[in-house]
Amino acid sequence: MIFVTTFQRTDNIKHKPALFVKFTPMPRHLHIVSFNVPYPADYGGVIDVFYRLKALSEAGIAVHLHCFAYGRKPAPELARLCHEVHYYRRDTSPLRLMGRRPYIVSSRSSDELCRRLQQDDHPILLEGIHCCDVLEREAFRSRTVMVRAHNVEADYYRLLARAEHSPLRRLYLADEARKLRRYESVLQRASAVFAISDADAQTLTAAGVHGVQVVTASHPFERVVSQVGQSDYALFHGNLAVAENYRAALLLAEGLFADGRLHFVVAGNHPPQWLRRRLAKYSNITLVDTPDDAAMQRLVADAQVILLHTAQPTGLKLKLLHSLFAGRHCLVNSAMVTGTPLAPLCTVADDMGAMRHELDRLMHTGFTEDMLSVRSAQLEPLLTSRTIVPILEMI
User: Fold this and answer.
1) Tens-place pLDDT, residues 262-291
2) Over the stretch 112-142, which tens digit does the pLDDT of each residue have?
3) How many CB atoms lie within 10 A of CB 146?
4) In a designed cystine with 295, which of 146, 192, 237, 291 is the match (CB 3.0 to 4.6 A)?
5) What is the mean pLDDT of residues 200-214?
6) What residue numbers bound the domain in which 78 lies?
7) Using the 8-state DSSP alphabet, how is residue 232 labeled?
8) What are the backbone dihedrals phi and psi of residue 332, each rounded to the nearest 5 degrees, phi first?
9) Nearest CA among 361, 326, 323 for reference residue 228
10) Cα–Cα distances in Å, from 328 out to 299, 337, 387?
11) CA separation (Å) from 137 to 140, 182, 367, 395?
């Protein structure tokens, strides 16, 4: 579609006015419904959302952003990127735990949102199964409604339950996993589903979901910025308020660094007190509590080896992409790269003996220009500007 603007110009008084027609492309519009306010972009899911909407905006898309707000304030930075931004209260009442629908969905059910989406016929992108209440409603059956699947959430919650210490929270997570498994069928109503990894795409397709495409995570990098050279410490980074991450940090700290030979830095948000106490026993281990973005960027850039470990072979870990685009050597276990194209760019080891051997080798191996060139070539298909192409084709 185009806007048509007419105006007149008179070259001089001896000539009749000439009529000119200026054709101005009409901007394409997209509604994005986000499970949380995606700024600041400081943890996995919101990093993916923020840098995707930023790339779409820079590609000329007029983004109508709808955010479910809980624990985060409205962000003026989003208004500068988007055509408009709306915020909705997430209903976190315990009553939402009742019923057959997953809590992450029922707590994000909004009639106000749906009324606003019905004011036009622009395509809609739902960020996560969390926002799929929209797909259940008859009014949207004829609309283009896409879903970004950040994980196979049923598997993700099941593995979270397995890692959880608190019996009450473990019960909630296990119940949520069962509800999410049943609820996955709602994705069959979507015009397209964008899975974050090949493994997730295969799981969703096997569950009967049609039109699944792999769209890797969006991130802040349009080139590899890893630094050539060598340093004297290894790094683990992640959200330390999450059980999977604090367990991984402790496993690596006590399994690889308890002998005091190497310097290990653990960095992340809100580490629990018991983790602080455990790590404080080791003079060669430094805990960096809730670093700001600039501090985290420096830690990643300067580390000689970035150690990452997960018990969850689901999704694609944003911290691994960050490490590869901005860090040096990455030493990971196989679950960290399962179903992704990233294994050739990492050193993979699964038991502590093999990890210790590879860690010693990498700590004494400088990161070279040749390594940087190889990494840059292999990561080029994962640039954020490439990852929005399937979405652009649907708008």
Assistant:
1) 999 999 999 999 999 999 999 999 999 999
2) 999 999 999 999 999 999 999 999 999 999 9
3) 23
4) 291
5) 93
6) 31-215
7) S
8) -135, 165
9) 326
10) 11, 17, 24
11) 6, 18, 53, 21
Q: Are 317 and 339 in contact (CB under 8 A)?
A: no
Total domains present in the chain: 2
CA angle at 111 for the pair 108 and 114, rounded to the nearest 5°: 90
- What is the Cβ-side half-sphere exposure of residue 61, based on CA atoms within 13 angstroms? 25
Query: Nearest CA to 394 among 66, 204, 124?
Result: 124
Position 293 confidence tier, pLDDT thresholds 50, 70, 90: confident
* The last residue of a domain, from among 215, 248, 273: 215
| Alpha carbon distance 330, 317 (integer Å) | 13
For residues 380 and 385, give the distance between their C-alpha atoms in angstroms, rounded to a whole number.
10
The CA distance from 20 to 10, in Å, is: 11
- 343-395 pLDDT, tens per residue? 999 999 999 999 999 999 999 999 999 999 999 999 998 888 888 999 999 99
Domain boundary among 215, 245, 273: 215
Same domain, 181 and 285: no
Query: How far is C-alpha 66 from the chain's CA centre?
Result: 17
Indicate whether 189 and 262 sit together in one domain.
no
Query: In DSSP terms, which residues pair with 288 in a beta bridge?
Result: 267
Q: Flag whether 2 is in a domain.
A: no
Same domain for 185 and 239, yes or no, is no
Whether 136 and 250 share a structural domain: no
pLDDT given at position 3: 33
pLDDT value at 313 more than 80 = no
Task: Name the residue with tokens 């976190």.
Answer: 92
Looking at the fold, whether 180 and 41 belong to one and the same domain comes out as yes
